[in-house]
Amino acid sequence: MVETLEAAKALMRDIAVSSEKRAEILLKNAELDAQLITREAKESIERLTEESSNLRNRFVTFKSKYKNLLESELERFDTLSNEIFNEFGDLGVKNSLQKTVVQNTKEEKKEHKAKIISEFESEVDDLKKTMINLRVGDGAQ
């Protein structure tokens, strides 16, 4: 009976040691999983930051191009109106023609500006949607 009791005690010690080793292994695995998740989160943040920077750069480039386009169109209107005034200035209709051309030019400028602003706002909306999709996509992963 004493031998059985000693064998049972030894078996209990072995089970306890085995349980402790298993607990240590599980703890180490959990720590490794936590490190992996942390590293993936950091990589995701870096990627989103880079994508955000790229989108911001695209936006600035887009804005600059549209600004240049507007300025060149305004210069073109000014050049055309000056050419028309010079061409018709000798006919005595300069004042009435000038008023008509200036009025038409102003309306055309307004229409053109409204069109470009609309396109610009559409591009901004597309960039916002892209950013939202990037964030949603990363959240799903």
Rg, Cα atoms, Å: 37 Å
Reading the helices and strands in chain order gives: HH
Into which percent range does the helicity of residues fall? Answer: over 70%
Structural class: mainly alpha
What keyword list fits this structure?
141 residues; mainly alpha; 0% strand; rod-shaped
What does this structure look like?
With 141 residues, this protein is mainly alpha-helical. It has helices at 2-88, 94-140. The longest helix has 87 residues, at 2-88. It is rod-shaped and about 130 Å long.
What is the compact description of this entry?
With 141 residues, this protein is mostly helical.
Task: Describe how the helices and strands are arranged.
Elements: H1 2-88, H2 94-140
